[in-house]
Design the sequence.
């Protein structure tokens, strides 16, 4: 299939081209995000391949449909960037990569917990300046903590398994509890989860129900000094309120790999620009906040799986008009 690949970086090009030897698609790589002002690039492409920050809005989808696009495949598990109702209206099939490597995101989550928990980000900067003082770098041990895992799907389950080696108490919350999780964690109700977790890590998708799930109403119920990790989707947190609760100490530590307005910033080198987003700029001033740019997925293993599944999604659709990894509203 002739496929327009948007938001393509060097690592996407490398892994997709390597695996395309088997599939033989005609791949055209475009570095910009798919958005109203770039959608013209996709004209005449039956296949459009996107990533987490491409704006597959109703207007973009209408334009794609009018110019021959039949399938949109995202190189991600999450698909909240795609207006599924519009895709259905215009007869465009949408597919995703349901599970490319829960290990990648889980291990990154653990890395964030350990980095902030042991102040490795500060130690790294100190020693680079020949400052070998360790006062102020006191950390904590996970065996003394209760960790709450919110969402026990593929990634949440892996986080729980990985955490189990540290000897911490693990609480789990999900609308659909999973038997396998009960070996390592206890499912509790929402109020118990909020009240007892020292560390909360979010592993649910972004839906209307989970949008700003940590907000002005819910944050006060958490433990004082709670450590929050978000590697799922930025809009699970109400960033303005999170800043307020960081300032008053309710949130003691925050690690985020995702940010609700990341589409305008992440995956770009803006180091020579004046910061224009006050919330993001403010977040980056806190010594107890760690921000990474949506990279929890970025391992060699995951890139391999993403490339194989994405190219396979297009091939299956081209062959049969169906796709097992199709997502619907
Ligand atoms: N940072 C990254 O690089 C990266 C990479 C992959 C995935 N993700 C994010 O991680 C999320 C989780 O991925 P996954 O593969 O584990 O998904 P999954 O679908 O396997 O699991 C999600 C779990 O969340 C639960 N859930 C949904 N709504 C809920 C609610 N309102 N309350 C409680 N639980 C709820 C579901 O029941 C399910 O068990 C994705 O949606 C995506 O947003 C981020």
Sequence:
């Amino acid at each position: 299939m002739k496929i327009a690949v948007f938001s393509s970086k060097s690592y996407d090009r490398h892994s997709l081209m390597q695996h395309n030897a088997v599939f033989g698609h005609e791949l055209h790589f475009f570095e910009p995000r798919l958005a109203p002002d770039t959608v013209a690039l996709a004209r005449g492409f039956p296949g459009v391949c996107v990533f987490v920050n491409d704006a597959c809005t109703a207007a973009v989808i209408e334009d794609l449909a009018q110019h021959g696009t039949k399938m949109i495949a995202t190189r991600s598990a999450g698909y909240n960037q795609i207006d599924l109702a519009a895709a259905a209206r215009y007869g465009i099939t949408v597919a995703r990569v349901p599970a490319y490597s829960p290990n990648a995101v889980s291990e990154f989550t653990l890395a964030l917990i350990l980095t902030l928990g042991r102040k490795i980000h500060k130690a790294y900067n100190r020693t680079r300046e020949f400052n070998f003082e360790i006062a102020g770098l006191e950390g904590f041990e996970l065996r003394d903590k209760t960790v709450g895992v919110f969402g026990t799907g593929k990634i949440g389950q892996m986080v729980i398994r990985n955490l189990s080696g540290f000897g911490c108490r693990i609480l789990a919350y999900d609308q659909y509890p999973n038997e396998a999780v009960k070996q390592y964690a206890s499912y509790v109700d929402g109020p118990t989860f909020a009240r007892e977790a020292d560390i909360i890590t979010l592993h649910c998708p972004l839906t209307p129900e989970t949008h700003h799930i940590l907000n002005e109403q819910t944050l006060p119920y958490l433990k004082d000094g709670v450590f929050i990790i978000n590697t799922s989707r930025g809009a699970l947190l109400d960033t303005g309120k999170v800043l307020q609760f960081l300032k008053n100490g309710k949130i003691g530590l925050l690690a985020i790999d995702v940010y609700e307005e990341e589409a305008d910033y992440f995956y770009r080198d803006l180091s020579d620009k004046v910061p224009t987003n006050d919330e993001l700029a403010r977040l980056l001033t806190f010594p107890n906040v760690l921000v990474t740019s949506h990279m929890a997925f970025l391992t060699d293993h995951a890139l391999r799986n993403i490339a194989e599944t994405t190219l396979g999604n297009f091939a299956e659709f081209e062959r049969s008009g169906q796709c097992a990894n199709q997502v619907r509203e």
User: Anything to note?
Assistant: The longest helix spans residues 300-320. Residues 77-78, 99, 102, 105, 151-156, 173-176, 203-207, 209-210, 231-233, 257-258, 294, 296-297 surround nicotinamide-adenine-dinucleotide (CB under 6 Å).
